[in-house]
User: What shape does this take?
Amino acid sequence: MKNYSIEVEKLEVKFGDIEILKNVSFKVKKGDFVGIIGPNGAGKSTLIKALIGLIPYKGRVVINGKVGYVPQLASFNREFPISVYDFVRVPIRKSENWKSEVDKVLERVGLKGYGKKLVGVLSGGEYQRAALARALVAKPDILILDEPESGVDEMGKARFYELLSELISEQNITILMVSHDIGMIFEKCTNVMCLNKTLHCHGPTTEIDITEVKKIFGEFDLWIRSDNHFEKEHGGHDKNYNYHEHNEHQG
Assistant: This one.
């Protein structure tokens, strides 16, 4: 159905005899902002690669629209001598108007005037936004991101999530994102998937049962959304506890 951007049914991925994903089924509505969480080795990045056709799989995957992909930070050799212009223009390199299109998207992500800089001199947050610009320059309907905030400071993360929220509001773009930042996922995303080989939960962030999250992460401090604040799951519930203030004090 066209009101779904992504439809997945009974997805399975194996590497040799090793089962990575088993019986994964879900649908993502147009305009949803979905965060995928799970422990290391849960198959999160494998799921992303299956969705965009980078690895073989069994099952049914339907993508309704053009996809923009932002891989993990470490997937690109930043010592390669390439300018931001040439890095971002890759999806539209055959377009005669590529420079004006790249300039527009660089300004949109806060990198106006960065086109001639080398990618290797960018900070983690700047590179993250350049990678987002490359995904956006072809005007996708769906953004798929694999741990895009890895190696980025808290201020950079906050700005990045703000950009994603603006894209949904302005363009009704659909976003599917893998992240280890559980607190930010529950604050910013409309929906969350809890993955560990298979889906343990999938639904609106405000309705996810914390016991299901515990099943895949174990017993440790989790942060759940409640009236725009986060409550500590262990050691009592402080209604005034704010996740961002906690991070600032820790950082």
